Known about the structure:
This protein has about 475 residues and is of the alpha+beta class. It has helices at about 20-30, 65-75, 75-95, 115-125, 130-140, 160-225, 235-270, 290-300, 305-325, 370-435, 440-475; strands spanning about 60, 100-110, 110-115, 140-145, 145-155, 275-280, 330-340, 350-360. The protein has a four-stranded antiparallel beta sheet with strand order 2-5-7-8, with no helix packed on it. Strands 1-6 form a two-stranded parallel sheet.
Amino acid sequence: MRSFRSRVVMGLGAALILSSPALAQDVRSTATPVPEVLNPNANPLQFPTRSEEVQIKVNEPITLQQAFELARRHNRALQVTELQLRASQSALQAARASENPTVTFQSNLSYSDSAQGEFSVRQQQNSTLTSLANSQNNQNTISAPLTGTLEVSYPLYTSGRTTANIQAAERQVRYNELQYELQAEQLRLDVSTDYYALQQADEQVRISRASVRNAAISLRDAEARERAGVGTRFDVLQSQVQLANAQQTLTSALSQQQIARRQLAQRLSLSQSANITAADAIEVVGLWDLSLENSIVLAFKNRAELEQQLVQREINERQRAAILAALGPQLNVFANYNVYTDFDARPNPGLADGYSVGARLSWSLYDGGVAQAQADQQTRNMEIAEVRFADTRNQVRFQVEQAYYQLQSNFANIQTAALALEQATEALRLARLRFQAGVGTQTDVINAETALTQAESNRLQAIISYNRALASLQRAISNFSTPLGST
């Protein structure tokens, strides 16, 4: 299939500033620093309670590259993904620590006065024993022992359970690394889409204002002709309706512009008092010089979603091994040192100590089938990961194909729309001249104004759609731009 670079770009009506996605990244990396006023409050629990705290006080123009940088720093979804990655890294450290020996210390101090001993003393007091013997027996009923044990234990053999748990934790870290990459790539696409939507809204406002101006000129001409006696009231009414419609369209466009600004601000997690505008000109941002087939193959090689499913299968496989290993013999070796004293012992409490060393062997001979059932569950999870891999592979191919075909059609539409815009501009000029000369009608002028507005909107839509398709194709390939989270 012929690549876009082999085509001759004619009549785009906008400058082609880049010629390849790789060059696009190099050029955009020279963007100006992000204004500090846009950075949000460092406290994520900030909760405004006064209207002045959420009042927009700053309206700052930013480039698309600056938007990428703001998203990398402040997007909340990306921050959550990063924290999940760090949590899995901590879980890996915990799994590896299970291979190390453990040291525990246990101490116990208790005080007891035996009811049985007290009863024996009372019985003895009624006998012929001396009071001294009674006193000694009464003292012996009270006990206040203190014990302490220090033990070192080491898992000498676990039938592979510890190793399997560590391997599962390592693969979970890899899975979360891929999730971070996925989130960063998707965020880049979302920011691009929101930025292009803002550009489109800004340009739509400009087109609507131009339409209002054209309608106002037509109304002025119609009123002048009516005063001169060569026009009709019908022409004036038509112009008034056209102007009212144009003003209504402008009002809607202004509303959409504000919504687009706030949508991007929300995506970038900006300061509560800051708003943004698009600083980049609306123009084609690059050309795609790869064939469809090469694009699909690159997507298969680079998409994090595909590797994620393979890693998930490995996680389930290791978890299954750990479950089955729990049924095998578990051997621990230990050594402990213990001390004992009784504070109420008479005549001298004294202190005794001792030690012990040994090994503990445990072996689950029968658990009712619980472990085997859990292992079978992990086997099914492995099969699910395989099916999801195949489904994700098909989705990736479709995403590449969809973006590629959209890129082609919008590329052709840009040239068509640019030519139509030139023709519509000339048609309006001629319609006004004919109306002023008395050989044309006001309806011709209104139709020409409507056609010009539509031609401008079509050209705008073609360029914006092309840029969106290019961003989608870069996302589908996931290797032509540096992930937002990279350092």
